Amino acid sequence: MALAGLALFTSATPGWAQEGAPEAPASEAPPMAGPPEGEGALPSGDSIPEFPPGLDVGQVEVGDEAAGETEATRWGLEAQLWYQRLYERSASEEGGTIAANVGRLVLDFRREWQPGRRWTVGFSNQWQGALDLGRAEDAPSHSSALNNVRELWGRWQTGDDAHPLYVDIGRINIRNGVGSGYSPTDFFKVGAVRQPLSLDPNAFRLNRLGTVVAMVQYITEHGAWTAALVPPLSTQDPMLAGEWYSLALNRTNSEAALYAKWAPQIREWLSVDVLLLARRSERPKLGLNMSLLLGSAVVVNADWALGGCRQLGGPDEPVTPYTWCNRVAANLTWTTPLGLEITLEQQFASDALGATAWRQWQGVSDARLRRLGEMSIQRSFELEPLLKHGSFARVGWRDAFAVRGLEISSFVQVNNIDWSGLTQQMVMWHTQSDWSVGGQFQQFFGAANSEYGSLSTPSRFSLFVSRRH
């Protein structure tokens, strides 16, 4: 039986993309005005999205993919207007697809203030409203509203320029990992993505809810040390959507946790991060990020994470005992003489479904299908792959065809078991003023009983215009 029935339980986005990642990596410094890295070294931690300055969080959507870590501070308000045409699988007996037209308005705000020489306050918020412009009678409604308080924090700085100490308190988007399509060491991604417009992993990393923490970061010429405490602020189910105005603390602060990171200064061509996350309800997670610069045009990145998990199994297999699992992502990025950035990545999650178990699930036609849907939703919420092996490729071109401000990008995510996947293409032009225009096309492909081919929205086309104020 085809897995199209999963549409009853899952949205139109894939395992790592459902509501519920370059060049060289950039620093995990606190958002907006992070401390400097050691001189001459490759920065450590987060990945730099592939496009130049311009649009901030929520903008690609218009441009999450477009904003670099140090370039993401475009203060003030950005208004985005979207037109989307969605093609969805019909629930009628005749089957086929039906089209829905949706208009969206996105108001994206980010700013920081310095009330004193050693004090900084930052705020980042996005409001998104959608309205059905026309749909078939049996098509679902897309009219909605959602507000995301992504970040709200205060920082105090002490120490000298060579040995600064930063103390941050508030909601902060802590990003780790150097994977492009999948970052197993990005420990704070779970539950943080809400209603994305772009399915690019880089957009997920930038446009998501931060976690409320009390964090300290100390930097010397030998490296950087970071420690943070995560308080439990909500007892609600982490997967509960909540009201449109909700702070959604249940998604980011449902449990107490301790986070630590060590980023030693090693060589100019080598960057290493060692990470630890300890939560009360699970075994500690250990992470290792590595970036290696090969010449002036090639960067090799690798993420490895070890933590507690339960192995996903076939439909008739009993629940497996809690054990340790490994998750890995490794990629290579080459910048060509023409300026194209090409990334190839391989991904592995030892706790995900293997080939044998997945073939068994593909043959399910009874009530066990609901269990598969719940499993898929849970992995989507965690932004972890449903199947063990995956591949990711990205091509980006800034100032394409020598046209200043013209950005072209394309990526594809494929699982290596049933060879279904997702692809997204985007063209965006930043004008000389504060206007940007562009288009985006997303498509899921694969057999009707495959992971991606069975999803309820096989394709989506979007046009957008935005203006910064």
The N- to C-terminal Cα distance equals 52 Å
What ranges have pLDDT less than 50 throughout 5 or more consecutive residues? 1-61, 63-73
Let me know the average pLDDT.
84
Secondary structural class:
mainly beta
Name given to the CATH architecture: Beta Barrel
* Biggest pleated-sheet summary: 18 strands, antiparallel, barrel
Rg from Cα: 21 Å
CATH top-level class: Mainly Beta
3D shape: globular
Q: What's the helix-strand series?
A: HEEEEEHEEHEEEEEEHHEEEEE
Determine the number of helices (DSSP H or I, runs of at least 4 residues).
5
Helix content: under 10%
| Count of discrete structural domains | 1
Beta-strand percent range: 35-45%
Count of beta strands: 18
| CATH topology title | Porin
Task: Put the structure in a nutshell.
This protein is mainly beta and 469 residues long. The protein is built from five helices and 18 strands.
Detailed description of the structure:
The protein has 469 residues and is mainly β. The protein contains 5 helices and 18 strands. It has one domain: Porin, CATH 2.40.160. It has an 18-stranded antiparallel barrel. The model is unreliable at 1-61 and 63-73 (pLDDT under 50).
